[in-house]
User: What shape does this take?
Amino acid sequence: MSETNDMAENGTKSMFDVYEEKSDIKGNLEDTDVRNDGDSAFDNAQSETEEMTNETDETVDDSAENVNGRHDNRGSESSSSIGPDADSTRPEYVDFSVDDFPGGLESCLEAILMVADQPQQAGDLARVLALEEDQVTAALQAIQREYDGDEACNLAPRGFELRHTARGWQFGNRAVFEPVVSAFVTDGQMARLSQAALEALAIIAYKQPITRAQIAAIRGVNSDGVVRALSVRGLIREEGTDEDSRAALLVTTGLFLEKMGLESLDQLPQLAPFMPAASDVVNQAKD
Assistant: This one.
C-alpha cells in the first residue's frame, strides 16, 4: 500500500494508468485506420470516375472521328461524281457506251450527223453521248481529216465533207462537185416551156383566179394538157372553186414568183405596151 502511495506521490504511472493509455492508443489507431480506409475508398472512387470520364471522352472522340470520316467520304464521293460521266449529269436515256458499237465514237458521231437536219455543236453531241466535249471535238476533227484525204498516203478526198461553221458540225457536198450535183438535181427539169404552156401560164398569172374553161375560151383551144404540165412543175395550183360552175380555180404559186424573180404579183409587167392599137385591131378585122 505504501508503495502505491509513493508512486502516486512521485508522479509515476501505475499499472492501471498504463493499461488505460494503451486502450486510448489502440482506439486512436482504430480511428486512424477507419479514416485511412475512407480516404482510400474515396481515392479509388475518384480514380475510377476519372477513368470512366477518360473512356467516355475517348468514345466520344472516336464517334466524332467516325462521323467526320463518313462526312469526308461522302464529300469525296460527291466530288468524284462531278463530271460528264457522273450519274447526276448523265441523261436517263443514255444507257450505253460508245465503245460498245463498231467503230466506237467516230462511227456514233457519223450516225448522228447523218440524220441531223441542221449543224450540231460539239457540246450538244458530248451531252447526248455522256462524254467530254474535248473528246468529241477531237473525234470530229479526225473524221474531217479522213474525209479530206491524204495525198501522201494516196487517199483521195471524199465527195462529201464534214464542215465546221459557227453553227456547228454538219455533212455537206464539196463545192468542187457542184456541177455533178446540179446535173442530178435538175435532171428532166430544165426543158423549156412550150409556147402553149407559156400562153396558159401568162393567162393564169394575169387573170387568176381562173378556171380551165376560161383559159380555153381565151386561147381558143382545150388547155387541159398544158394546165396539167404547169401543175406538175409546181408553177400553178388549185385554190377554191368557182361559185357558178363549181369548177376548180387556178392560181400561180410561190415557185412561179421565184422563177420570175418577183416578190409579188403586183410586180408583173403591164400588158398595155404589148397590146396592139385599137385601130390596128379594127383594120385587121375589116380585112
